């Protein structure tokens, strides 16, 4: 952990004052701050050096994938390569209607841009609350905050009481999540096939049967060189499906270089999570990514995080037996999803992945 040199500058007081506004980072921008509060400042080594590479993330075209046949085989092959080498890929012709995607982005903007009085009742740091609005107040002294606000909607076993969803985006969230669930089903089949398993394997083990929608709002930042929109991390999910608007700023770490993931209207991004890396015994990789703070915005993105059903959460996960052999023995021990997630949270910002902790012979 990096401790700022002038200790005790009133970190806790500053954080509390910000938290008490319940207005998030957007509230600071609306108040016209020209300098970001100190607890948003990240240590120089975690700040972005300009990306030099022109590498392009793979794009996979899902056209014709459901009819089976030759095209499906090709797609499965492309997924196997992309999930194994990049952990991230863009999907086009995924079947989610463009108007539903655009309406969702608009609705999330509308939620965050409504008067503070209308959203502050949802402001909460309690992760058990299924629908909540918050910013990202650091829990541990000297962890840095980042320049974004979030509306989270958690669907356990694909379910959430519609009345719990804020009116500003209720209809759109319901429509969008339906599409995400449909695409999750397709992804589960394709990923199963890419692992050499029967098509229904991942669906049967219910490892992606719940989803949390993180509806993110990244306001314009007055000092973008000092902070981040989202710090470097890998996702503690099985799979993440990400939609971003046209602003950009997402980067992924590939072969030790930060690669820009520029927006493509209508495309979605699939991202292998830590737990999928575990059950695939490293056949698929979960890679680190981040979002820059920018002098332009606001940027809107929606991450759909897929995690196990309630029933599957009660049982441990481990590398899938069918893909193991004498030459490919299990690299990870079995553990509960909750155990993984709790361990990850204790790591704070100094370690970004919890995977090594669950490796055999660490
Ligand atoms: C995340 C994430 C990326 C984005 O929320 O885990 O990586 O573009 N978001 O907002
Ligand atoms: Ni992420």
UniProtKB/TrEMBL annotation:
Gene Ontology terms describing biological process: coumarin biosynthetic process; response to molecule of fungal origin
One Pfam family hit: DIOX_N
Domain Fe2OG dioxygenase: 209-308
Recorded GO MF terms: 2-oxoglutarate-dependent dioxygenase activity; L-ascorbic acid binding; metal ion binding
Annotated keywords: Iron, Metal-binding, Oxidoreductase, Vitamin C
UniProt cross-references to PROSITE patterns, sorted A to Z: FE2OG_OXY
Keyword field contains Amino-acid biosynthesis: no
Domain of life: Eukaryota
Keyword check for Iron: yes
Family of this protein: Belongs to the iron/ascorbate-dependent oxidoreductase family.
Name this protein carries in UniProt: 1-aminocyclopropane-1-carboxylate oxidase1
């Amino acid at each position: 952990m990096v401790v700022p040199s002038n200790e005790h500058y009133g970190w806790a007081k500053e954080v509390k004052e910000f938290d008490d506004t319940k207005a998030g980072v957007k509230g600071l921008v609306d108040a016209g701050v020209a300098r970001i509060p100190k607890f948003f400042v990240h240590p120089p080594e975690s700040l972005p050096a300009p990306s030099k590479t022109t590498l392009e993330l793979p794009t996979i075209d899902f056209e014709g994938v459901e009819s089976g046949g030759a095209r499906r085989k090709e797609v499965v092959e492309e997924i196997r390569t992309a999930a194994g080498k990049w952990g991230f890929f863009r999907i086009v012709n995924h079947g989610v209607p463009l108007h539903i995607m655009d309406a969702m982005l608009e609705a999330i903007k509308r939620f965050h841009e409504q008067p503070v009085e209308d959203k502050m009742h949802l402001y909460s740091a309690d992760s058990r609350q299924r629908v909540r609005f918050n910013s990202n107040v650091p829990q541990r002294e000297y962890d840095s905050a980042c320049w974004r606000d979030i509306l989270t909607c958690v669907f356990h076993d694909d379910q959430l009481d519609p009345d719990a969803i804020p009116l500003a985006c209720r209809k759109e969230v319901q429509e969008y999540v339906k599409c995400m669930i449909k695409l999750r089903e397709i992804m589960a089949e394709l990923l199963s096939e890419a692992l050499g398993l029967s098509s229904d394997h991942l669906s049967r083990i219910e490892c992606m049967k719940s989803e949390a929608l993180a509806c993110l709002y990244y306001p314009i930042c007055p000092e973008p060189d000092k902070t981040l929109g989202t710090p470097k991390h890998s996702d503690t999910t099985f799979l993440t499906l990400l939609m971003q608007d046209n602003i950009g700023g997402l980067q992924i770490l590939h072969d030790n270089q930060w690669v820009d993931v520029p927006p493509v209207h209508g495309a979605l991004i699939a991202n292998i999570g830590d737990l999928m890396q575990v059950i695939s015994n490293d056949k698929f990789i979960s890679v680190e990514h981040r979002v820059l703070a920018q002098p332009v915005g606001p940027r809107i993105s929606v991450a759909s995080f897929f995690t196990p059903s309630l029933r599957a959460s009660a049982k441990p996960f481990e590398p899938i037996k069918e893909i193991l052999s004498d030459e490919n023995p299990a690299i990870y021990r079995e553990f509960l999803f909750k155990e993984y997630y709790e361990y990850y949270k204790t790591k704070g910002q100094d370690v970004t992945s919890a995977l090594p902790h669950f490796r055999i012979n660490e």
